[in-house]
């Protein structure tokens, strides 16, 4: 079972993207718990995490612009990203406790 993010690409500042994450080869429900990102030359940072109480906690830099969504029927997690900024440029990874990071998806925000 491997996590695979998709939906990244090149977008202009102010634009939107929706990322998806699936667990290839899985027939059981996946406990998606958030998204992380890693910009060039920087450490991986959290974008959104689902707390034990069930609510999302967003990183300060994305609060109000990004939204975590999960479709349990499709076993897929999403990250809706609006009002994108150049500093959002990074490789984005979905997070499942206990699973390797898997393949991320590159988001480039540039004019």
Helix content: under 10%
General shape: globular
Mean pLDDT: 94
Q: Please give the radius of gyration in angstroms.
A: 13 Å
Strand tally, please? Answer: 10
Secondary structural class:
mainly beta
Low-confidence stretches: none
Cα-to-Cα separation, first versus last residue: 37 Å
What order do the SSEs take from the amino end to the carboxyl end, as H and E?
EEEEEEEEEE
Number of H/I helices: 0
**Share of β-strand residues:** over 45%
* Major sheet description: 6 strands, mixed
Strand order, largest beta sheet: 2-10-9-4-5-6
Task: Provide structural commentary.
The chain is an all-beta fold. Helix content is 0%, strand content 48%. The protein is built from no helices and ten strands. The chain has strands spanning 2-6, 9-11, 17-24, 34-38, 45-50, 56-58, 66-71, 76-81, 90-95, 105-109. It has a six-stranded mixed beta sheet, with no helix packed on it. A four-stranded antiparallel beta sheet has the order 1-3-8-7, with no helix packed on it. The mean pLDDT is 94.
Features:
111 residues; mainly beta; 6-stranded mixed sheet; 4-stranded antiparallel sheet; 48% strand; globular
Offer a concise description of the structure.
The chain is mainly beta. The chain is built from no helices and 10 strands.
Task: Furnish the topology, listing elements before pairings.
Elements: E1 2-6, E2 9-11, E3 17-24, E4 34-38, E5 45-50, E6 56-58, E7 66-71, E8 76-81, E9 90-95, E10 105-109
Parallel strand pairs: 2-10
Antiparallel strand pairs: 1-3, 3-8, 4-5, 4-9, 5-6, 7-8, 9-10
């Amino acid at each position: 079972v491997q996590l695979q993010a998709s939906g990244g690409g090149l977008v202009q500042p102010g634009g939107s993207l929706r990322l998806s994450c699936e667990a290839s080869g899985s027939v059981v429900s996946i406990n998606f718990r958030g998204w992380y990102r890693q910009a060039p030359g920087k450490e991986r940072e959290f974008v959104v995490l689902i707390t034990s109480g069930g609510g999302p906690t967003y990183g300060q830099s994305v609060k109000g612009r990004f939204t975590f969504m999960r479709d349990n029927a499709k076993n897929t997690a999403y990250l809706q990203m609006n009002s994108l900024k150049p500093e959002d440029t990074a490789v984005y990874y979905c997070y499942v406790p206990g699973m390797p990071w898997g393949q991320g998806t590159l988001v480039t925000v540039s004019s």
